[in-house]
């Protein structure tokens, strides 16, 4: 998935060296972006080249996964980058660590044209620029009765046919929320009941997966017929197993948001605001969705049914999503890791 960079990539060391050596005016024309580095060629064409032309600035990058990049920003006391892309779980950690600054909505007018769920997902800090979901996928050729509820994961006919995301993945902690709902308890107040329900689910679980490619392989080889999954895996799995379907759950799917924040020590906060406004432009969002990069949050984006089928898209679908309290979830994770090991590490 990691795209090949063509033009703008520079190592962080080079970027910082350039910043320290350049005159003040040039420093004000450099925006440093922390992100994953996926889809590099497409992002260069759709976002970076036109933004560079608009701002007359240089763009440099720090790339890596959520945890590594957030840790670097923490070590630097919130400095070293201007704009920070993270999943909402990690951006919540950054907010709690005091690593980001509020985003001035008056300087990002395109926020007014995005779905409510994306405008202020974590208060006064950064908006979400794309939205996804976590639900259940199943092979309709092998599962006779359609799956319509999270509680169906416990069905007797699904014994040794299910895969769950590992607890350290983005979707992993949501397994505890699902189990708590099955047990009828608050996962943050009665963790033991939630994990007892997970233990009851264990006979149905063949294997827990940690990457999307691992899940694709499990379906391709026929090892599993059902999985709790993020929607970005669906197209790849359907390419291998066309009879796989996304379950329509009566309780709704869980929302996953990717956010964009401004670092507390950003050297160019004005330019950072301009960049965030740029990526929320409906035309940019339309192109990103059509080219298979990200699901749109701009309400003005119009997709064909075929284009929309791969995304979390449209008011009806987005309004049905269940939001997570990542402040509570992040605080509970350590205890959940131990309890998870007790259930699935045996």
Textual characterization of the structure:
The model is unreliable at 1-27 (pLDDT under 50). Strands 1, 2, 3, 4, 5, 6, 7, 8, 9 and 10 form a ten-stranded mixed β-sheet that branches. It contains 15 helices and ten strands. It has two domains: 30-131 and 255-318, 3-Layer(aba) Sandwich (D-Maltodextrin-Binding Protein, domain 2); 132-254 and 326-345, 3-Layer(aba) Sandwich (D-Maltodextrin-Binding Protein, domain 2). 40% of the residues lie in helices and 17% in strands. Helix 3 links the parallel strand 1 and strand 2. The radius of gyration is 21 Å and the shape is globular. It has helices at residues 12-21, 24-27, 40-55, 66-75, 88-96, 116-119, 172-183, 191-201, 212-220, 234-240, 269-279, 282-290, 305-308, 315-319, 326-344; strands at 30-35, 58-63, 83-87, 100-101, 128-139, 162-165, 205-209, 226-230, 244-246, 254-263. This is Spermidine/putrescine-binding periplasmic protein. It holds the Pfam family SBP_bac_8.
